[in-house]
Amino acid sequence: MSGRRLLVMGAGTAAAENFIRSLQDGDPSLVLLGCHDDPFVLKQSGADTKYLLPSPRAPHFLRGLRALVHAVGVDLVIPTSDVHVQRLSVGRRQLPGKTFLPAQAVVSLCRDKHALISTLRRRGIAAPDTRPVTGRKAVDRIFAQLRGRAPLWCRPRTGTCARGGGAVSSPEEAWRWIRLWETMQGVPAASFTLAEYLPGREILCQSVWRGGQMLLANTFERLSYFGVDNIPSGVTSLSSLAKTVIEPDVVALCRQAIRALSPKASGAFAVDVKEDAQGRPHVTEINAGRLFMAMTAFDLVLKHNMALTYVQAALRDRVELRDDYAAVDGYYMVRDLDMPPGILHADDLFEGVESAWAKPMPSSRSEP
Fold first, then answer.
1. What local confidence, expressed as pLDDT, does residue 26 receive?
2. Which of 122, 271, 292, 365 is 20 to 30 A from 208 in CA distance terms?
3. Backbone angles phi, psi at 30, to 5 degrees
4. Rounded distance, CA 43 to CA 32, Å?
5. Out of 40-49, 126-135, 163-172, least confident range
C-alpha cells in the first residue's frame, strides 16, 4: 500500500491518535493526514500533515472535506467518532470511493439503541429487554412489567460514553434520574429507555467486514473507567484499564448480530456486550462504521493489526488472514490523561517494581 494517502478525522483526539500510531506501526509507507475543526487539538496530532476543516456539524463541512480530498489526493477518509460516521454516511455520495461504511440504514439503526435492541430481540439474538420511556406513568408501568428485575438500567436512546446511563432501583429513583438529565443537560425524558440490568463482565468485540464476510475480530474486557468519582452512575465507556480476552462465544454472538442487521455487511463494527448473572453474553450496543476509541492501541501486540486490516479492506486490497479471530490473552492496556496508552502483559506487570511492604525498605538516611 506504499504511498496511499489516508485522512484520519478527529486528528489530535485519543481515538484518532491511537489509530494513527497503529497504522504507523503496521505500514510505515502510508501517508497519514489528519483533520480537525479545533486548531489546538489538531496541533497535537502525529499525522504527517494536518488540515483545519469546519466542524462535522457545520452545514458546509462536506463541501470543505470534498475539496480537501480532491486537492491532496486522499484515497480514504477514516471516521473516529459517531458524529463523523453519521456525517459521512449521509454524504457518502459526495465522496465516491473514499469511505468504507456500513449501509446508511444500518448506521441509522445502530444510532438508536432502543430500535437496535428491539430489532435484535425480534431476530432471536440475545439483548437486554428494553422499554421506551414516554413519561412518568410509563416508568411505573415498565417497573411493573419487569417486576423482580430491579435494578433497571436507564439510559438515552442515543449518545456515546454511557452518557445519561445509570442503574435505578425504583420508579421514583428512575424518574429523578431522568428529570436530572432533562433539567441539567436538556435530554428529553421521552428519549430515555429502561432495560433489564446485566451485572456481569463487559466484553468489547470489534471487527472488520467486507461483502458479508468477517475479516478480523478481537475481544477485550473493560475493567475500570475514567473519572468514576465524578460520575454518579460510576460507569462510562472510557476504559482506564482493559485487557485482551479469548471469548469465542462473544464473537459468535456478534457475528450473528451483524449478519442479522446486514447480510452483506462492510466496514467496521464495534459491539458492546454485557453478561447476565449466569454469564450469558448480550449485545447492548453496536457502533457501526468505526472501531473503539482505545482498542486499536492493542494492535501493537495482537497477531493481526485491526486498523491496518480496516484500511486494506477499504482500499479493496487482498486480505489474507489464517484466522478471522486470532485473539491473544493476558495483555493489559492502561490509560490516563496526558499520556499514550501503555500495553503490557500480565507476566511483566511487576518487572522493575518492588513491593514496599513485602520486605523492609532501605533507610534513606543513617540511624542516629
1. 95
2. 122
3. -70, 145
4. 14
5. 163-172
Percent of the chain with pLDDT over 90: 80
Q: Does position 136 have pLDDT exceeding 70, yes or no?
A: yes
- Amino acid at position 81, single letter: S
Alpha-carbon gap, residue 271 to 326, rounded angstroms: 17
> Is it the case that residue 63 has pLDDT exceeding 80?
yes
Instruction: Work out the number of other CB atoms within 10 angstroms of the CB of residue 52.
Output: 14
DSSP state of 342: E
Cell of 350: 511487576
Q: Do domains 5-99 and 129-196 have the same CATH topology?
A: no
pLDDT of residue 202: 95
Tell me the C-alpha distance between 272 and 211, whole Å: 22
Q: In angstroms, what CA-CA distances link 225 with 11, 163, 272, 295, 334?
A: 23, 13, 15, 14, 10
Q: What is the C-alpha to C-alpha distance for residues 292 and 80, in angstroms, rounded to an integer? A: 8
Backbone Cα Rg of the chain = 22
Residue written as cell 502510508?
30
**Could you tell me which CATH class the domain 202-348 is placed in?**
alpha beta
Cβ-based neighbours of 224, under 8 Å, separated by 6 or more: 239, 240, 241
pLDDT given for residue 366 in this prediction: 43
Secondary structure class of 85 (helix, strand, coil): helix
CATH fold of 5-99, please?
Answer: Rossmann fold (3.40.50)
Please tell me the distance from the alpha carbon of residue 213 to that of residue 215, in angstroms, as a whole number: 6
The CATH topology of domain 129-196 is Dna Ligase; domain 1 (3.30.1490)
C-alpha to C-alpha distance for 316 and 363, rounded to whole angstroms? 63
- What Å distances lie between residue 273 and 82, 198, 199, CA to CA? 18, 10, 11
Domain ranges in the chain are: 5-99, 129-196, 202-348
Instruction: Give the pTM.
Output: 0.91
Using 50, 70 and 90 to split pLDDT, how confident is the model at 367? very low
First-to-last alpha carbon distance for the chain, in angstroms, is 69
